[in-house]
Amino acid sequence: MTLNQHNLYRSLAFTLAALALYVPVNLHPFMLMKYAGKYQYTTIWDGIRSLFDSGMWVTATIVFMASIIIPIFKLLALLFIILANILKILPTYRTSLLLFVDFIGRWSMLDVFLLAIMVALIKFGSFATVTAEISSYLLGFVVVLTMLASASLNTPFDQDG
Amino acid sequence: MRRLLLTLIIWILCFTAIVAGVVLTYNWYRNLGPEISISFLDASGIVPRQTPVSYRGVYVGWVQHVRLDQKTGRAQVIARMHRDVEDLLGQGTEFWVVKPEFSLEHSSNLGTIASGDYIGMRPQKGKALSNFTGLDTPPVRSELAEGLQVLLHGPDGGGVNIGSPILYKGLQIGEVGELGVTQNKHNVLVTGYIYKKYADLVRTSSFFGNVSGFHASIHILGGSEVGMDSLKTLLSGGIVMETNNLDAPQAQSGAEYELIPPEAMQRLTGES
Questions:
Q1: Domains in chain A: how many in total?
Q2: Which residues of B touch A24 (CB under 8 A)?
Q3: How far, in Å, are B148, B149, B190, B210, B262 from residue B254 at the CA level?
Q4: Are B88 and B54 in contact (CB under 8 A)?
Q5: A-B C-beta contacts closer than 8 Å
Q6: What is d(CA B34, CA B82) in angstroms, rounded to the nearest whole number?
Q7: B8 CB near a chain A CB, below 8 Å?
Q8: Which residue has the higher pLDDT, A106 or B93?
């Protein structure tokens, strides 16, 4: 097994792991909001719909792109690059696609950032608090796994020129 | 060799993640309870994806959509219930909107001013249904319903409201739950609930009198004095209960009594 193939399969493992975790990320609650003795679990999709309902459709679109579209697009693009490499097809698009994946990748952590800010800001004692829920941790895993997947791919490509 | 080990670790990680992903997805699917539809005459205060369905203070479901039912002209609330209450959605399950209430008799659900309204639920075990008709007015509170029910009928129900106190020697031992008329429509029918811990005060020999709107120290029959200076009763009306013979058998829930009208009560007090 060459170094190139080692990295390729490593990247495939990271991508599959991220894909497997991506599904529960979108199903489970992302955060828990408590206010005035009432609590509410919110999934990523709920958050986007709430933003959209309150007329902030620009923000809603950005969050939708950053937390749902970009992560899945990045993962599918990675999967496509890896499979194309393994099957040795489509040699020309791969590098530019990889560059594009790297470019958009930096946006996928936006949601986690947003949550971190909200958790820090909304601490009115017992009146209102925001807590991170399982989905946010999973999203963190997905983002890290995606980064590892594209990092594993980068080395051989750079060496090949 | 080290590289092979690293790849192996990465693949183990990959499989762990896949197993975790599948388990979590399956968990989500397992906990997904039934979706029910409740039709209300008025759904104001119900917010999609925010309003919970609450049973004994536990959130057992969340409202998903609120829309107008074109056929019936009523508001239709779609809620996703938790898996745990799936077998508590049988025939006869009641739903109502819990809103803050202010009145002289009692104020309740003040918490909802800040947190928003929610849907209250009284479950009935059985095969889960998916369509319910919500109550227009909240039913009698469960802690009241656990008490002793007394049915009082009389010619004058003036001043008696839902929530009016039932007093025994000036102490509130219960309250009025429902108001209506008797079957022959000649009398008012007041359904009172005596708190559980005072239930043994009600005997078959007990008297109930409407004391709304008059204020005097009254004496009922045996001469026991009932101070009517309670501001609450003065303002909002109330019912006085008196039990002369505490050796008489205890009243059964649903026992019927005559509700002595205010004038008669005044006469009674005048005579003694």
A1: 1
A2: 20-21, 24-25, 28
A3: 7, 5, 11, 19, 23
A4: no
A5: 74
A6: 7
A7: no
A8: B93
Q: What's the pLDDT at B224?
A: 47
Confidence of residue B106 (pLDDT cuts 50, 70, 90): low
pLDDT, residue B214, reads 53
Inter-chain CB proximity A37 and B22 less than 8 Å: no
Q: Write the burial class of residue B242 (CB in 10 Å: 0-12 exposed, 13-18 middle, 19+ buried).
A: buried
Band (A106; pLDDT cuts 50, 70, 90): low
The pairing of beta strand B131-133 with beta strand B32-40: parallel
For residue A20, give the nearest of A108, A143, A142 by alpha carbon. A142
The answer, yes or no, to whether residue B230 has pLDDT greater than 80, is no
Q: How far is CA B18 from CA A30, A144, B22, B29, in A?
A: 20, 15, 6, 16
Q: What is the DSSP string of A87-146?
A: HT--TTHHHHHHHHHHHHHTTTTHHHHHHHHHHHH-B-TTSEEEEE-HHHHHHHHHHHHH
Share of chain B above pLDDT 90, in %: 1
Helices A134-160, B2-31: inter-axial angle, 10-degree rounding? 150
pLDDT class of B272 with cuts at 50, 70, 90? very low
**A34 in contact with B, Cβ within 8 Å:** no
Q: Which residues touch A94 (CB under 8 Å, ≥6 apart)?
A: A81, A84, A85, A157
Q: For residue A50, what is the domain's CATH number?
A: 1.20.140
Phi-psi category of residue B83: left, alpha or beta, with phi > 0 → left and psi -120 to 50 → alpha: alpha
pLDDT surpassing 60 at residue B270: no
* Region class of B236: left (phi > 0), else alpha (psi between -120 and 50), else beta: alpha
Helices A70-87 and A3-27 cross at an angle (nearest 10°) of 150
Q: Does B115 touch chain A (CB under 8 A)?
A: yes
Mean pLDDT rounded to a whole number for chain A: 75
Residue-range definition of the domain harbouring residue A117: 3-160
Does the pLDDT value for residue B129 go beyond 60?
yes
Question: How close, in Å, is residue B138 to chain A by CA atoms?
Answer: 20
- Which whole number is the average pLDDT over A49-68? 81
Burial group, residue A22, by CB count within 10 angstroms (0-12, 13-18, 19+):
buried
φ/ψ of B189, rounded to 5, equals -120, 115
Say yes or no for a CB contact (<8 Å) between B24 and A138: yes
**Alpha-carbon distance B142 to B91, whole Å?**
19
Q: Which two tokens stand for residue A73?
A: 């697009």
pLDDT of res. B196: 85
